[in-house]
Amino acid sequence: MAEAQLDSFPSLFSLDGKIAVVTGGSRGLGLSAASALLQAGCSRVFISSRKAAACAAACAALNAQPNLRPGARAIAVPADCATLEGVRSLFATVSSQTFHVDILLANAGATWGEGFDTHPDDAFAKVMDLNVRGVFNLIREFAPLLQRRATVDDPSRVVITASTAGLGVGTLGKQGTYGYSASKAAVIHLGRNLAVELGPRGITVNSVCPGFFPSKMSNGLLELAGGVEEMGKGNPMRRLGRPEDIAGVVVYLTSRAGAHVNGAAIEIDGGAMWARGQLDVKL
What we know:
Layout: E1 19-23, H1 28-39, E2 44-48, H2 52-63, E3 73-76, H3 84-95, E4 103-106, H4 121-147, E5 156-161, H5 178-198, E6 203-210, H6 219-224, H7 228-233, H8 243-254, E7 265-268
Family: Belongs to the short-chain dehydrogenases/reductases (SDR) family.
Protein name: NAD(P)-binding protein
Pfam families: adh_short_C2
């Protein structure tokens, strides 16, 4: 039957020769995603974060992986994506080394935990600036590079790292992450707007919404909640997120397999949001 014929299924999840930019790529989910992009076939992955030493260390680890295509490499580009100047500096460096970009992973993010009554204005502003305004600036500045080789059959991809905290209720109380939760809700909706805006230009925009993954950002909340094992017991899958969980979804969205997915927000939390029928998440 004609319906059973798939076009080159072995290459469906391949990123052979693609060029990617990953912000916040020196650690945590960003580093896991960057590793997946390289191992799936990307020829170059630009790794950005505020600290030059962290970028360099991440690239050294990524370039030492055994499963890379010949000549593939990660390239360190330190930049502060919370500011327009930082985003433009990143763009200038990347555009000086490549004519186009196929994949943009807007992963850089920040959080702040403090009670409602004492929650500082400058902390709220810092989180919103990086998690929302910075993402918008990043996508706008990189749109020309993303458009250059985009086609209907092979669109360029933007993936925003959001959170299940942007879909339900985040952490409240003494370590309330009010700005973080609000920023993730905002950036998910921003992604949907940009999906419609940029789709005709050959660019898809999707969001991934991780739940709890052990990381430097989440470890403080994990400790307050009793640790990794205790948190895992409350998950329908009886564990927390692992690097391959985020890696698989990012490769799906950026490969030919995800070419017709646009404006989506994909939860990666083992079903924790829906446990006991409650929209109650902790990160």
